[in-house]
Amino acid sequence: MDILDLRHLATAIEAGNFSRAARQLGLNPATVSRRIARLEDEIGVTLFERGPFGIRMTTVGEMIVVHVRRALEDFEAIARVGQNGGAGQIGSIRLGVRMPPIGDPLQSLLSAWRDEHRSVRLTVYELNDHQINAALSERRLDVAFITHHSVQPGSVTIPVYRERIYAAVPESHVLAAERRVTWDMLRSEIVLTQGWDDSHVAREFFASLLGSGVSFSAHAVSKQTIMALIACGFGVTLATASQAQVHFPGIVYRPVCEDDAWVHVDLAWMVENKDSAVGRFVAFMRDESRILRSS
Fold first, then answer.
1. Within 10 Å of residue 20's Cβ, how many Cβ atoms?
2. What is the per-residue pLDDT across 155-200, written as a single tens digit (0 to 9) for each?
3. Which of 35, 108, 125, 184 has a 20 to 30 Å separation from 291 between CA atoms?
């Protein structure tokens, strides 16, 4: 028994005779009749009464055809899933992020993706830089938005967007009275960063901008906790434009007016990842990033 036998049977039932069914299938009537006879032999029952009236389903045949139609529907569903999956229209993506998707452009990028790919399940994991790189290499993440300065060898990346850097300072701080700040104005401050035993990427990046001799204070906490410490007067920190859209009591944000005061964000994945949905996500973000860079 194969799928063609079941399809010939269903067509014969709908057509009412083998000749009409043969025309619809592009076969000769003898072939259709022979295939159905073989199917009857295989399952051990007579499906059709044959006579001058044409063909007529037997009682057992009427019972069996219910399951035949159900089986054909299941086969068609399998084919649709395969086609959609191969085209990346369905599936799941595990996305790592270093920074919460607050504000533009990341929020708009994810919103546009969701609008066009509602059948693809997107699960987001917020991790530090070291964890993201490890999860990518171990295939616990499919793709990740990660700052360019923290990308590790082995990942494939494309640039997606950049964000202006702001200084987050206590509202009572002398710098809060400034409309904008420079690196020179920040070098004498205690700069708070997120840091773990296995990851001090944020401090290294801040140091590359501020230069040597800066006093850093690393904490293994979330960015929200860093902001709370800033409000308590423990120092200052650097934030992206999207992070500066989040209001924290006791904190003000001032743009850093320097040519290099930008955070560049890449989309990273492992070259051996051949999942169709992931490929579509990468292509979508690549195309959208080109629009962002040209605008």
1. 16
2. 899 999 999 999 999 999 999 999 999 999 999 999 999 988 777 8
3. 125
Q: What is the pLDDT of residue 95?
A: 96
- Highest averaged pLDDT of the listed ranges 38-42, 95-99, 153-157: 95-99
Q: What is the mean pLDDT of residues 262-269?
A: 94
Q: Are 143 and 95 in contact (CB under 8 A)?
A: yes
Give the integer Cα–Cα distance in Å for 216 and 189: 9
Percent of the chain surpassing pLDDT 70: 94
Helix (H), strand (E), coil (C) string for the chain:
CCHHHHHHHHHHHHHCCHHHHHHHHCCCHHHHHHHHHHHHHHHCCCCEEEECCEEEECHHHHHHHHHHHHHHHHHHHHHHHHHHHHCCCCEEEEEEECCCCCCCCHHHHHHHHHHHCCCEEEEEEECCHHHHHHHHHCCCCCEEEEEHHHCCCCEEEEEEEEEEEEEEEECCCHHHHCCCECHHHHCCCEEEEECECCECHHHHHHHHHHCCCCEEEEECCCHHHHHHHHHCCCCEEEEECCHHHCCCCCEEEEEECCCCCEEEEEEEEECCCCCHHHHHHHHHHHHHHHHHHHC
Who contacts 200 (Cβ-Cβ below 8 Å, separation ≥6)?
193, 218
β pairing state of 215-219 and 190-194: parallel
Closest CA to 168 of 221, 102, 225, 105: 225
Among the residue ranges 58-62, 191-195, 213-217, 248-252, the one predicted with the least confidence is 58-62
